[in-house]
Specification:
Chain lengths: 107, 116
C-alpha cells in the first residue's frame, strides 16, 4: 500500500495570503494525484486531479504541481471559505489511499 | 446534476452486519464506478472499495474478507455490506462516484456507530 504523508498537519495563514500544502508518497505515483477540500460537516470536494488539473468550478486560485513522490497544492489568495481540511489521494495503485490531511486555519 | 444519498441503520451491534444503500439520481449507474469511503470520527479517509455495474469489483485488502459491494441498475442503487463489525468500524460512510480513481461526486455521508 502506498502511504501518503501530508505536511504540515495544521497551517495557520492570514486571509489574502498564500498557502502551500505538501504531500509525499512512499513510492512514485507518477501524476496520479488528486486533492480534495473538506469543510466542517461536509463531504470532501474534488479540487485537483492528475496533479495539476482543476476540477469543474474550482477557482484559478487553486493550483497543483509535482510528480513522482512530491506534490504541492497552492492557494494563491486565501478567502474565508478556503479554511478547511485538505486531503491528497493517489490513484496509481490499488488500494487508493489518502493522506491524513492538512487543516488550514485562520491566523 | 448527479446526487447520491446514503441510507441505512445508524447503529449496529458488534459482530453483526453493517448494510448501507446509496441511491443515485441525475445519472445512470451503468456508467462510472461506484465507491464506498469511510471516515472515523476526527480521522482521515479510507477507501473501502468500488464496483462497476458489470464486472470489476475491488476491495481494500484491509477489509476484503468482510466487505461486499454490489450494484443494482434496476433501482439505480449500489450497496455496501460489512460483516462481523467492531467498534473500529464506527465511521461516517460516504458513497461516491468514481472515474479512473478520482471521486467527482460524493454523498453527504451517514454516521454508523457500532455499539451494543
Amino acid at each position: 500500500e502506498i502511504v501518503m504523508t501530508q505536511t504540515p498537519a495544521t497551517l495557520s495563514v492570514s486571509p489574502g495570503e498564500r498557502a502551500t500544502l505538501s504531500c509525499r508518497a512512499s513510492q512514485s505515483v507518477s501524476s496520479s494525484l488528486a486533492w480534495y477540500q473538506q469543510r466542517p460537516g461536509q463531504a470532501p470536494r474534488l479540487l485537483i486531479y492528475s496533479t495539476s488539473n482543476r476540477a469543474t468550478g474550482i477557482p484559478v486560485s487553486f493550483s497543483g504541481s509535482g510528480s513522482g513522490t512530491e506534490f504541492t497544492l497552492t492557494i494563491s489568495s486565501l478567502q474565508s471559505e478556503d479554511f478547511a481540511v485538505y486531503y491528497c489521494q493517489q490513484y496509481h495503485n490499488w488500494p487508493y489511499t489518502f493522506g491524513q490531511g492538512t487543516k488550514l486555519e485562520i491566523k | 446534476q448527479v446526487q447520491l444519498q446514503e441510507s441505512g441503520p445508524g447503529l449496529v451491534k458488534p459482530s453483526e452486519t453493517l448494510s448501507l444503500t446509496c441511491s443515485v439520481s441525475g445519472g445512470s449507474i451503468t456508467s462510472y464506478n461506484w465507491s464506498w469511503i469511510r471516515q472515523p470520527p476526527g480521522k482521515g479517509l479510507e477507501w473501502i472499495g468500488y464496483s462497476f455495474y458489470r464486472g470489476t469489483t475491488k476491495y481494500n485488502p484491509s477489509l476484503q474478507s468482510r466487505v461486499t459491494i454490489s450494484v443494482d441498475p434496476s433501482k439505480n442503487q449500489f450497496s455496501l455490506k460489512v460483516t462481523s463489525v467492531t467498534a473500529a468500524d464506527t465511521a461516517r460512510y460516504y458513497c461516491a462516484r468514481g472515474m479512473a480513481g478520482i471521486i467527482d461526486y460524493w454523498g453527504q455521508g451517514t454516521l454508523v456507530t457500532v455499539s451494543s
